[in-house]
Amino acid sequence: MNTNNHTHTHATPEGLLRPALVLFLLLTIVTGVLYPLIVTGVAQQAFPAAANGSLITKGDKVIGSRLIGQAFSNPRYFWSRLSATAPMAYNAAASSGSNLGPLNPALEQAVQERIEALRAADPDNSGLVPIDLVTSSASGLDPHISVAAANYQAGRVARERGLPIATVQDLIQQHSEGKWLQWLGEARVNVLQLNLALDAAAP
Questions:
Q1: Can you give the pTM of this predicted structure?
Q2: Residue 24 within a domain
Q3: Are 68 and 44 in the same domain?
Q4: Can you give the residue range of the structural domain that contains 29?
Q5: Residues 23 and 115 in one domain
Q6: Are 177 and 185 in contact (CB under 8 A)?
Q7: What Cα–Cα distance (Å) separates residue 22 from each residue in 3, 19, 98?
Q8: Do 129 and 159 share a structural domain?
Q9: Strand positions, DSSP E, 53-203
Q10: Are residues 30 and 122 in the same domain?
Q11: Is 3 a domain residue?
C-alpha cells in the first residue's frame, strides 16, 4: 500500500505584502520619477520653446503665450476671439466653452452685443462680420482669429494708428499661418503677435 504525502504551503499575508510593496515602489520610481525626467529632458532639448509654454517676451518681460489668447478692446488693436472661461476670460486654468446651444437666447444676445461693439468701433464698415469675431471657441483660449476676421478689422486699426491700410494688410499677411498640413482648418493669425508687430510699426 503506497502512501503519498502531500505538503501544502500557504502564503502568509506577510509573504504577499513584501513583493507588492517592492513592485509598488519600483513602478513609482519608474513611472513617477524616471519617465517624467526623461520626457522633460528630451522635450527641453528638442522643443525648448514649446516645452516652456511657447512664451512671448518683450525685452525681459513675459507678456503672453502663443498658445493662449488675450483680451483686446482698444480700437488701435486687433480684437481676439471671445472667451467664455470663468471667472475671467482666457483663464487657462478653466478652459471651457459657453455650452450655449444655437437657439439659446443668451447666445443670440452675446452675438448681438459683440456685433454692436464692432460696429460702434468702426461705423463705416458695412461688411459681414466673420463668425469667429462674435462667438467663443470650445476652449475659450484660442489665440488666433481667421484671416477674414483680421482683414475685417484692418480698416479700423489703420485709421486709429494713422497707417495706410495696405501697411496693416501686409502685416496681416506676414503673420498669417496656413492650413495645418495644407488642408485642415483655415488660414489664421495669432492676435498677440500681430498686435506686437503693430506696436513695432506704429508705436
A1: 0.74
A2: yes
A3: no
A4: 13-48
A5: no
A6: no
A7: 41, 5, 47
A8: yes
A9: 55-58, 61-65, 144-146, 176-177, 188-190
A10: no
A11: no
> Where are the extended beta strands (E) located within the chain?
55-58, 61-65, 144-146, 176-177, 188-190
Q: In what order do the strands lie in the sheet with 144-146?
A: 144-146, 188-190, 176-177
DSSP state of 24: H
Q: Look at residue 50 in the predicted model and tell me its pLDDT.
A: 58
pLDDT one-digit tens code per residue, 23-45: 888 889 999 888 887 887 676 66
> Hey, which residues does 57 pair with through a beta bridge?
62
Report how far residue 54's alpha carbon sits from residue 47's, in angstroms, rounded to the nearest whole number: 10
Asked if 111 and 20 sit in the same domain, the reply is no
Give the C-alpha separation, 99 to 82, whole Å: 14
Per-residue pLDDT band at 80 (split at 50, 70, 90): very high
Residue 160 is placed in which grid cell?
A: 486709429
Asked if 95 and 188 sit in the same domain, the reply is: yes
Q: Give ∠ CA 163-83-153 in degrees, rounded to 5.
A: 20
**Residue 61 is placed in which grid cell?**
518681460
Does residue 189 contact residue 177 with C-beta atoms inside 8 Å? yes
Asked whether residue 4 is domain-assigned, the answer is no
Ramachandran quadrant class, 181 (left: phi over 0; alpha: psi -120 to 50; beta: rest): left
Q: Assign 92 a pLDDT band (cuts: 50, 70, 90).
A: confident
Q: Count the domains in the chain.
A: 2
